[in-house]
Specification:
Blueprint (H helix, E strand, L loop, with lengths): L1 H27 L4 H8 L6 H10 L8 H13 L5 E2 L5 E2 H36 L8 H10 L2 H15 L19 H37 L3 H8 L4 H13 L1 H12 L6 H6 L5 H10 L3 H29 L1 H7 L1
Antiparallel strand pairs: 1-2
Length: about 325
Amino acid sequence: MRFALRRAAFYLFTAWAAITINFLLPRMMKGDPISAYLQKNQGKISPEAVAALRTLFGLDTERTLWEQYIDYWKLLFSGDLGRSFSHGFSPVTDIIGTALPWTVGLVGLATVVSFILGTVVGAVIGWRRGRGSDAVIPVATFFSTVPYFWMGLIAIAVFSSALGWFPASHAYGKGTQPGLTPEFIGEVVYHGALPAITIVIASLGGWILGMRNMMITVLDEDYITVAQAKGLPDRVVVRTYAARNAMLPQLSSFALALGFIVGGTLVMELVFSYPGIGKLLLDATNAKDYPLMQGIFLVITLAVLAANILADIAYVILDPRARQMEA
């Protein structure tokens, strides 16, 4: 309970600081969403409409900054992240809710697969160090160092243009009606296969190398020697003693990776024209759509905090030393 309260206080303070910065940052920048909107519609907006827009976006000059800050928190608690003027004044929550599932579904699944596969392969290579399996490391590391946009373009050229195995872009085929039907789900899986594979290949090397190095470090510990001296089977030593302790540092990296899933893989979404949250953020930045940018930043921040909370819980469950230290 003491550990939970301490961590909860820390994350609540972090969330408050992030939300406050998210509120202040657009107001500290030159210009505002209303000014950007008026530049695109010069002479088409009446002064009364401009005043109404400033009130809508919480930028009413007649209200103090503190009053605007209180209004901002009230809107957050009511689930209102404002309106996006680059999407016809649609609610920001609706726009993010439309793009978020695409990013979480694709990048999230690819990240989880790469973490599990890289951790397992790294554990095996670390346990069997000095053998032929070590040849996997330079190959995986090479793919991790290749710029992602280059890898994506090569994958499109080979597997889409030359071989015709996968589509080159978009989340589903043109003319397909979205819905929870087997045909639509099949189209989504088919279109997402190539970008997902490239994400796994690009990120696999880091997980393999990190787990392999930690396995080598853990295998030199005394408790591994004692476990082997007891005559325990290798699979028990690897799974229960070595891999369980070696993967603890991996959890922190995995938590950050999970948190930034919400931010999406911007380069991937641009290369494959995928309708995710990363591309939405780029479009909002180009349009100077501050409400949409604020909403996306807020969602990303909260996702990172939630992922770190889950990592803390998993760390305490897997490592008895952490529980003893907190006790």
